[in-house]
Amino acid sequence: MSGLRYIEGVVTLELDRERCIGCGLCVQVCPHGVFVLESGQAVLTARDQCMECGACARNCPAEAIAVEAGEGCVRGIINELLGLEGPCC
Ligand code: SF4
Ligand code: SF4
């Protein structure tokens, strides 16, 4: 088996480019490099690598990003295993 593989086409992440104001926060907070800024706007370049942590959507000041966070949140999974409550990512 070669390295980690991502399942294509199942990510809930959506970007509304008409709302994007190009602040770049999503580029900064995404741990998987899913976004880049091009011509002053966010672009999804690696959508299938999104782990649905929700950080981009929570930090976007323009509410341009929607994602069903939770399924891939490592902190949430660890907290659940430890029997702890806490915010996801
Ligand atoms: S939900 Fe998390 S992994 Fe997915 S694009 Fe946003 S910051 Fe990146
Ligand atoms: S955080 Fe929101 S407004 Fe800022 S660049 Fe990303 S999508 Fe655009």
Automatic annotation (TrEMBL):
According to its UniProt entry, the function of this protein is described as: Ferredoxins are iron-sulfur proteins that transfer electrons in a wide variety of metabolic reactions.
**Coiled-coil regions listed in the entry:** none
Which protein is depicted? Ferredoxin
Q: Which UniProt keywords apply?
A: 4Fe-4S, Electron transport, Iron, Iron-sulfur, Metal-binding, Transport
What Gene3D superfamilies does the annotation carry? 3.30.70.20
Q: Which residues cross the membrane?
A: none
NCBIfam families, alphabetized? HgcB_ferredoxin (NF040864)
Give every 4Fe-4S ferredoxin-type domain span. Answer: 11-40, 41-70
InterPro entries found in the cross-reference section: 3Fe4S_ferredoxin, 4Fe4S_Fe-S-bd, 4Fe4S_Fe_S_CS, Fe-S_Ferredoxin
Q: Which GO terms describe its molecular function?
A: 4 iron, 4 sulfur cluster binding; electron transfer activity; iron ion binding
